[in-house]
Amino acid sequence: MSEQIDEGLKSELQKQGIWVTSTQELYNWGRRNSIWPLQFGLACCAIEMIATAASRYDLARFGGEVFRPSPRQADLMIVAGTVTKKMAPQIVRLYNQMPDPKYVISMGACAISGGPFKQGYNVLKGIDRYIPVDVYIPGCPPRPEALLHAFMELQRKIDGQKLTGENKAAHLDRAQPSEFPVPAFGAHDLEPPSNLDLFRPPQIERV
Amino acid sequence: MESLEEIKTRVEAAVPGADISIIPNPGPANQPSLLIDNEHAPHVARFLRDDPALRLDHCSNVTGVDWLDRTVTKKVKVKKLVEGEEKEVEETHEEFFPGYLESVYHLYSMALKQGPVIIRMRTADRGEGARLPSLTPVYRSADFQEREIFDLYGIRFDGHPDLRRILMWDEFEDYPMRKDYREPDDYEYEPTPHDDVLEKAKQHYSTRPQLDGAEELTAQE
Amino acid sequence: MTPNPYFFIVIFVGVAVVFPLMPLGLAWLWRHFFQPPKPGAQKNATYECGVESLGEAHVQFQSQYYLYCIIFLIFDVEAVFLVPFAVAFTGLPVGAFVAILIFLLLLIEGLVWAWSKGCLSWAREKSVE
Ligand code: SF4
């Protein structure tokens, strides 16, 4: 049902006027061309996200123009801007409230690592400490073209997702969680400071 | 506008008992300020606001300053009798200044287009005595800024209508802008550390595994 | 033989039933074979812009609110009558002008009456006074 069709056979058939596809291709084609982002912005990067959605850069060309004000209808969370520690629980909760399948673009230096405010007392060092991120775009802020690139990257990723088998897409896998624990406000920091199931930073080996 | 000295004498005449001193600022900005005793601060502020010659009706900025405990070593030359004859001997004196917190208000006059007059207040110490009278009843614009100072420096403003944390969450216990603030250790992944960050990131470095010869065995196979 | 004229209605009803049911059925099949549902406490919680929701969803509005709405009707009615009046203004006799003035006065009187009764201030403010 979802095995890859032989490419040569497919193009041969297409020459004869027969178009074949697999459920997986059809499913991914449909999903990748209507990625609805969640409508929220956190800081300066949000301005670039707004510019991307507006007429000049026109995210609608990729099917992502329908910014949804409710997580119930959104497929994509664009974390655009500085995530303060006070805001992080709300973002994780919004992510949890999005239905599967859901994706996250971490836009800008701030959402990736804290950016210019990395050592600030109030800034989370990257949203990937609490939720899984699919595409990172560096920049401060990334230009709208970069966000479009991230969008295309995400479409490519969706295109490659499998319906069955070992590495099937996370939302199809019963074992993969769709909710992640929301950090609590602690006395000195968020509790826990990162979700260790998700955030495994590479060990830096230095003497 | 009048000089600070004139303002000081007029305030002292108008608010009996007020203890005001002028803090010079030797830096390039050269903005000396008035240090006001806590007890009379609201009266002094009200006088500065309502006095027809000053009319400082706009409090544009309120900041906090943290002064740690410090010891100043001074070398003093003293005449002493050493082995029967009088000699000049250098002695070092250590003077201890206990730390305190300060709040600094920048006052301008919209009506007379003049300013700023800078006033400050000092807390007794950096712990439980970190209390100051609130100037929010005099200047509405001080409301959020005093809350911010409370949030970041931990100065409690007596008489403030709504003293809560404003930037950090309510459960937070530290005061992040104090100089002795210890931030939580989240330096586990610093790809490009330098200076202070490097020192903190080093705590998380794992040492390179020692070569014990085992890898050569696998290489031979 | 001409088919029964009601036959088309039967087809129409049939399509009207099948058409919305088909995607629902497909979704059910999809769920069954591919995508396991993953409900959760937070996912199913009331959406409140990311913060935890507090209190009851069934709140009572102040009755004052409805008074506001009704008083708003004064201006609504006024606008409805004033626009045609303004369009036809130059061609109207004096009698019509006087009539609309009386009409406006009546509406304004209603407003003044409501105002003097205190309908335009919130109940909370009144209790403070
Ligand atoms: S990465 Fe730069 S532009 Fe984006 S939110 Fe942070 S500071 Fe603003």
Describe the structure using short key phrases.
heterotrimer, B: 221 residues, alpha/beta, Beta Polymerase, domain 2, 5-stranded mixed beta sheet, two-stranded antiparallel ribbon, 22% helix, flat, C: 129 residues, mainly alpha, 4 helices, 64% helix, binds iron/sulfur cluster
Explain what the structure shows.
The complex is a heterotrimer of chains A (207), B (221) and C (129). Chain A is 29% helix and 8% strand. Chain A is of the alpha/beta class and 207 residues long. Chain A has a domain of 131 residues: 3-Layer(aba) Sandwich (Rossmann fold), CATH 3.40.50.12280. Chain B folds into two domains: 139 residues, Beta Polymerase, domain 2 (2-Layer Sandwich), CATH 3.30.460; 39 residues, no CATH class. Chain C has a domain of 66 residues. Bound molecules: iron/sulfur cluster.
Query: In what range is the share of β-strand residues of chain C?
Result: under 5%
What's the mean pLDDT score of chain A? 89
CATH architecture classification name of the domain at 35-165 in chain A: 3-Layer(aba) Sandwich
Shape estimate of chain A: globular
**Low-confidence sequence ranges of chain C:** none
Order of helices and strands of chain C: HHHH
How many distinct beta strands of chain A? 5
Which outline of chain C best applies?
flat
CATH class of the domain at 35-165 in chain A: Alpha Beta
Mean pLDDT reading of chain C: 85
Rg value of chain C: 29 Å
| Backbone structural class of chain A | alpha/beta
Number of helices of chain C: 4
CATH fold naming of the domain at 35-165 in chain A:
Rossmann fold
Distance between the termini of chain C: 85 Å
Biggest interface, CB < 8 A: A-B, 20 and 26 residues
**Cofactors and ligands:** iron/sulfur cluster
Question: Could you estimate the helical fraction of the residues of chain C in percent?
Answer: 55-70%
